[in-house]
């Protein structure tokens, strides 16, 4: 990494996904860009989030597949999990991807990378150590860190978070997971599949409270079948010597406890007051629809904005903030239903207006296809799940939810459908390869189109057409036409 220069056209504070994309985008426009990172570029996604968690889930999925082999007529026995080797493979996955986000890669892209803690000293200046830098535009991308609830005794417990989990060297015999959101559910299933006895505790009535109850119920049943003890509408109030006490009076013993109760923006200690950058009540940076802060020369992108905390959102934010800062084009954030995926088994994916929200909006309707009717799911014995399309009055696809294997991939075309305002007839009219899990959205769309063919309006139109052709009888088979 370089020493801090005295001037830059654009300074980016934070080297996670949003920061890396912002810095490379700005440098691509030919301006002088400095990225300040206190630890190592790559951020949470590379080092403690997306990459290691998905590598761990892949190992856990392999163990589950071996256990389930008997249902396919293959006797494989109980898998023997070598946890240190599992974690070594997780680190190998990180090492394989790390060069893409390295200081060398950033330097090659035309970005000057500076190591240290950035502190704004004024509306147009930032300090790193004893050095100071004047900038024309700045982009804050410091992200968020795991939040820790005020549980009595937790501060004297060697608890884990999504940041410290990857230092484990042995498989916990008993794992307590506090928080039943995406991270909590993913890690609960992963460790249960690897051999831990897992208790999952959530305050809401269901796990994954952001999802519709129908989706949460499918995953809850799957986790329970795999031995996870689920406690919903429950709060851990006290921890003492390997035992957690809940507000319902239950006692849960554990060897390790993972706290997965949300994230807090990293905005303290940045000197934002001196920079004229205002914060919301919870510490998120105040931004407008263009990601500009209350200082017109400073922008913010990624998790610290209070927008959905996903890597794909951070990347889009970084690109938009950089182009707005350098070019002054002032593009707005795309708020057309940010997609999200929980990478459990089954996966749960949503795009656009999700099912839970759609049920509260007059004029929207749901078209659901159970995966018993998806032939690929039948062949793989994975029929637990469904596809639901959210439709407006013109039959446009304004949202979708998919529960099942590869839901994260299946949701892709539905994201495009929502973005482009496609109708069910557009999706139904596109030839899909058979058999795939994409038959779920396709067949749901086909079902909606077929339902239209039996409406009075369509019947009258078909009769009018028949009369014009000299035929007075409309064949009953018309309902099968598309």
What does the model show?
The chain has helices spanning 17-28, 43-47, 50-67, 83-97, 103-108, 182-194, 213-225, 272-275, 311-327, 355-358, 375-380, 407-420, 424-428, 439-452, 456-468; strands at residues 7-13, 33-37, 111-115, 118-122, 125-128, 131-140, 144-146, 174-178, 197-201, 229-231, 236-239, 243-246, 251-253, 256-259, 263-265, 298-300, 340-342, 347-352, 365-370, 386-391, 397-404. The strands form five sheets. Strands 1, 2, 3, 4, 5, 6 and 16 form a seven-stranded mixed sheet that branches. The chain has a five-stranded antiparallel sheet with strand order 17-18-21-20-19, sandwiched between helices. Strand 1, helix 1 (17-28) and strand 2 form a beta-alpha-beta unit. The protein has three domains: 7-41 and 102-144 and 264-327, FAD/NAD(P)-binding domain, CATH 3.50.50.60; 154-262, FAD/NAD(P)-binding domain, CATH 3.50.50; 340-452, FAD/NAD-linked reductase, C-terminal dimerisation domain (Enolase-like, domain 1). The longest helix is centred in the N-terminal third of the chain and has 18 residues, at 50-67. It is globular. Mean pLDDT is 93; it is low at 469-482. The protein is of the alpha/beta class. Helices cover 33% and strands 21% of the residues. It contains 15 helices and 21 strands. The N and C termini lie far apart (61 Å).
CA radius of gyration: 26 Å
CATH class of the largest domain: Alpha Beta
Q: Beta fraction of the residues? A: 15-25%
Number of domains: 3
